[in-house]
Amino acid sequence: MRRIAGAPGMDRFLAGRMPDEIVHSALERVLLGDTHPKKGRKLSVKNRQSTAAFALCVMGIINSQLSNAIDAAEASFSHLPLGDAETEPGVVEVPEPIDQAQFLERRDVQRELFARLREQAAPELRPVIDYWEPNYLADDCIARGEFDRRLVHRLRLLARAILADLAREIQPRAPTGMEMLM
Questions:
Q1: More confident residue, 35 or 153
Q2: Residue 84 located in a structural domain
Q3: In angstroms, rounded to a whole number, what is the distance separating the alpha carbons of residues 21 and 28?
Q4: Could you write out the DSSP letters of every residue in 107-173?
Q5: Does residue 95 belong to any structural domain of this protein?
Q6: For the segment 139-159, what is each residue's pLDDT rounded down to a tens digit?
Q7: Is 158 within a domain?
Q8: I need a surface site. Which of 30, 41, 152, 153 has the fewest CB within 10 A?
Q9: Long-range pairs, 148-151, Cβ under 8 A, ≥24
Q10: What is the pLDDT of residues 109-130, one digit of tens each?
Q11: Does 109 lie in the same domain as 71?
Q12: Residue 181 included in any domain
């Protein structure tokens, strides 16, 4: 079931279907097996001898149907070759794995930086701060012509001073094991 839930595209296959409908379709295939062998599944004599063997056969039919649906769902997505996107056209660059500790550290620095900017900045810098905050981690500059260059420059200098203060406050120390508890 984990493979079914995790397969991309299976939400479309399972949308609006109840588990009993899947079982019903498997039993329908068993019934069609006698009259229309190409549309259904013909059971062997061994699978008709006991209810346990019959139930095992029906479970195999259900697994087969779900496996076929997963394969069809996975095949419906486009597969792109991996490589260096700058040198090879038509390939996709593999994203770097996300380091959770580094991500959390950046988020904490961002929160502290903007809290201090709001405290220390002049009122005319507030709109520039509000514009820059949501784009802080993703953008490479504060503003691209949306604000006066002098205001952006003043904000950049203030942010550099605050980041320098933060770097002095957070001195790297040897790990003691207590970091996990804080």
A1: 153
A2: no
A3: 10
A4: HHHHHHHHHHHHHHS-GGGHHHHHHHGGGTTT-SSS-SSSS-HHHHHHHHHHHHHHHHHHHHHS---
A5: no
A6: 767 777 788 888 888 988 999
A7: yes
A8: 153
A9: 151/124, 151/125
A10: 889 999 999 999 999 999 989 8
A11: no
A12: no
CB 81 within 8 A of CB 92: yes
Tell which of 75, 92, 117 closes a domain: 75
- Top pLDDT among 142 and 1 is at 142
- Spatial contact of 85 and 130, defined as CB atoms under 8 Å apart: no
Residue type for 55, please? Answer: A
Q: What is the reported pTM? A: 0.44
Residue 142: name the closest of 122, 154, 162 by CA. 154
* 115/126 Cα distance (integer angstroms): 12
pLDDT of amino acid 175 = 66
Q: Is the predicted pLDDT of residue 169 greater than 60, yes or no?
A: yes
Burial class of 152 by CB neighbour count within 10 A (0 to 12, 13 to 18, 19+): buried
Q: Higher pLDDT residue, 57 or 172?
A: 57
Residues forming beta bridges with residue 82, ordered by sequence position: 92
Same domain membership, residue 109 and residue 154? yes
Q: Tokens 């207590």 correspond to what residue?
A: 178
Q: How many domains does the chain have?
A: 2
